[in-house]
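Quick one: structure for this chain?
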Amino acid sequence: MLRIATKSPTYLLCLVLLATGCATPVGVSRVDPRTVHRTLTRNVLSSGRLSEPTVIAFEHHDLRELLDAEPVRALAAMHEVMRAQPQPRPDVLFALAEASFRQAETGGDRAYFLASAIYAYAFLFPEDDAHTPSPYDPRYRLACDLYNRGLTAGFASEAGGEVMLQTATHVLPFGKLAVAFDATSRNWGARHLTRFVPAAELEIRGLRNRYRQSGIGAPLAADAPPSNPEAYASDFLPRNVKVPLNALLRIDAPRQQLHGESIEGVLELRIGFEEEVVEIEGREVPLELERTAHLAYMLAESSIWEREYKGFLFGDLTHEETRLLGLRPYVRGRTPVVLVHGTASSAGRWADMLNDLESDPRIRANYQFWFFSYDTGNPVAYSALLLRESIRDALKRFDPEGTDPALRDMVLIGHSQGGLLVKMATVDSGTRYWDQVSRVPLDELKVAPATRKLLADALFLKPEPYVGRVVFIATPHRGSFVAGNRIAHWLASLVKLPSHLGRIGIDLLNNEPSAFRVQGLKRLPSSVDNMTPGNTLIKVLASLPVSDGIPAHSIVAVKGHGPVAMDDDGVVEYSSAHIEEAVSELVVRSHHSVQDHPDAIEEVRRILLLHRGLD
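Got it. Here's what it folds into:
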């Protein structure tokens, strides 16, 4: 009989121990570096999951499991841990800030947003400098974002689209927050700030780059309607101007206040145009600002886009008070850059250039941008006259005593037809224009005094004393081949000139028809007529050099990849855009709207830095 030996329990236990002996309680395994980075950098704002430092802090106090199961109880317990510490530890404050933010998002109680902001502020700005977190600590930047987002969400309106800035008392998970707000800070000159929109939450389209200034505080954009029509006419700003703002809740001795049940803070509002830093606990801290979002928000609600083609066909759209405008009030000592758009266009077409240039702190500190708008179907000489008159009026308004040298050293930049308007502010024409169109001296012309004055102002040119430098972009100095085609002239025949120009035309053509060298005219020429190659105005202007002492730069667009001299941009040939007197010329492979091309923008940046000796 075969007998089988039975293994003893001791023998079986030994086999199990041998089988598992190669697995240690603690070990490592190699993983993909991206996985490591995601683990190290994940946080409640980027992934909805708490960061490692926060998880560790709750683990240290045996609250990790409770945080997963009952987060409200865990937060209350961690708050008591913080209150029991004579000097609240940074790791506890940060963990409370991040976990409170998650609870606000998942639990729907906005009180936790404000709690998150308070904890984050206490982490960032302790009363004792020795406990200030290092800027190299990844928690530092995240705490700034938790504070900024906490304010935006905590002070949001019921509908959530706006931030409510007011004196109020708010319920916190551990007590109350008393907020003081100076309502007069909503006054901005003769305007009143209203409708505060969270700028960081705006999605942007139509601009290539989005620029932010990282810092502290909630970035906002606000409406600033004028308090009365007279205020609007005098402050040089568009009616629908948007203002970049920063809202900061300042809490004195935040760690000390957290030991009690009541927190007091002051809500401060700052204009992003005017301030970029704030002092907190003796430190200079940058403000969080959303410059690109503010610009896009303003342009999205602007009426300028619908005026582009209407402004070409109907010459009475642009009113006197809206011709030359800035996006912010005049600042003494900053050189104006006057941007002049082209035909069937608007000031909005400078958006990419403005966005990129104003991202440069050197440009912001030394320049202010003004935009000239005009009805682009009107005669070129008339539009150029309006440009010069608008700038002169601005000088009288801002600097009647002539004590700001920056206003006598402007940079004028014109695209396409706008370049022709700019050039007419830089030349000495003498009687050249008039001699080409009339057989009779202007003084002997039998017309109304108003007609004679307009002709003298528009056609007898002297270099304007405020011009320090000019930049021509895709400018048809010798005309545009598109302006010369039949379709363009058919469109030009539809242009309705301003009523006062119509009356002047009747005065000229009815009273003195024989005085003019061109016979059979039935109307004043439009801009298309003026820009047709061979037209009298364009021929005379091309023959006049930019005055000595005014450096001229040229940016020329060509579409093709062949010889530059034989190419064009679809509207203007290189041979028309090129001028000999330019101290620099940059050729960009682009269509006619080259003003938004990165190479053109960088060239304008170079020129502006050169102009102020910052290159």
